[in-house]
Design brief:
single chain; 296 residues; Cytochrome Bc1 Complex, Chain D, domain 2; 2 domains; 2 strands; binds heme C
């Protein structure tokens, strides 16, 4: 089933919807206080872990200040789409419509309350690292309407990242990241004719075509039946349609099929492919993208 505002009939100014928003704000402020106290407690416990996250020498006091700053950034830059509850139900509603083979796909702002993220360097099922979130918030998400935020200072982006973590309890779980994948140098053979030929075999063996189609146009036999975790129809990437959402460089392509895109039918192939297979598959993906300006 679609979301409440998924039918596409009502306008964002619909009165029921505005009422909802008002109630949401009050609730949110109360919850915010409880959450704030909880957050402080948890941050004390999490201090040991903080080092692993890469935020330099944060103290609980500094961190809660960061969350507060982030709340302000969120209110001015994110709430319109992601909503004051972080559930993706901001005033804007549908952000982007993709059309394909007669199928209309709506793309909504992400619901942060589920704590599920697509573009990660971490294994399937784990939360992204702060670096992953920083990349997405900074660059935005191509083909989706999620804007880049290069005009925000690094501090503002860091703070808003801390703030969006308050929407899901998952961020308080102990093992939040698993082991992020290591992305070394892109090997020289990537993109070579021999590697592309080997990559095509991997693409066939892994049955990527079931979703993405033989020629990578997103028209595989399963394409029209796919849904995301939020119950919305979702299209497999059409390699000729433009930039990758998670970034189009070889290491971004590599990351996509190694970690998978959580919340979508795009699986992780971490266990199925060795290092050589992975880079050969990158070569073949680049070949599929060649038809567009984004293929390098
Ligand atoms: C114009 C609407 C819009 C605005 C403004 C916006 N976003 Fe988004 N955001 C989206 C959409 C749409 C997606 C879903 C992209 C997708 O999955 O294809 C998204 C996804 C995300 C994701 C999920 C990335 C992942 O790996 O799954 C994060 C994190 C995010 N936005 C953070 C922010 C932050 C922080 C701000 C404010 C600084 C912000 N967004 C402002 C529309 C918006
Ligand atoms: C069960 C269907 C399915 C299979 C099988 C599948 N994919 Fe996907 N893939 C998807 C969907 C759906 C998306 C789009 C996710 C989105 O737009 O949020 C996607 C997106 C992608 C992207 C674009 C990511 C981005 O950042 O925009 C790449 C690259 C990709 N898949 C490669 C592969 C490769 C290579 C294989 C085989 C090893 C494969 N996929 C197998 C469903 C599938």
């Amino acid at each position: 089933m679609g979301r409440e505002h998924g039918a596409g009939h009502h306008t964002p100014l619909d009165s029921t919807f505005s009422l909802d928003i008002n109630r949401g704000t009050t609730l949110f402020q109360q919850k915010g206080k409880v959450r704030f106290v909880k957050q402080t407690l948890i941050l004390i416990v999490a201090l040991v872990v903080v080092g692993l996250l890469g935020w330099p020498e944060a103290t609980p006091a500094q961190d809660s200040k960061l969350v507060q700053e982030g709340e302000a950034v969120y209110a001015s830059r994110c709430v319109i789409c992601h909503g004051d509850q972080g559930d993706g139900k901001g005033l804007t509603g549908i952000i982007h419509r993709a059309q394909k083979n007669g199928l209309v796909i709506n793309i909504y702002p992400r619901d942060f309350t589920a704590g599920v993220f697509k573009f990660r360097s971490t294994p399937s099922g784990y939360l992204p690292t702060d670096e992953d979130l920083m990349r997405i918030v900074t660059q935005g998400v191509a083909r989706s309407g999620m804007p880049s935020h290069t005009d925000l200072s690094a501090e503002e982006r860091r703070s808003v990242i801390e703030y969006i973590k308050t929407f899901s309890k998952r961020w308080q779980e102990e093992d939040r990241h698993g082991q992020p994948i290591k992305l070394g140098q892109t090997p020289d053979f990537v993109g070579s004719p021999a590697s592309r030929v080997r990559g095509r075999k991997v693409y066939e063996a892994m049955q990527c075509a079931r979703c993405h189609g033989e020629t990578g146009r997103g028209d595989g036999s399963a394409a029209e039946t796919l849904e995301d975790n939020w119950g919305e129809k979702i299209l497999p990437f059409d390699f000729t349609s433009g930039a990758l959402k998670g970034g189009s460089s070889p290491d971004n392509i590599y990351r996509t099929f190694v970690t998978g895109l959580d919340g979508t039918p795009m699986p992780s192939y971490e266990d199925a492919l060795n290092e050589q297979d992975r880079w050969d598959l990158v070569s073949f993906c680049i070949q599929l993208m060649k038809a567009s300006e984004y293929g390098s």
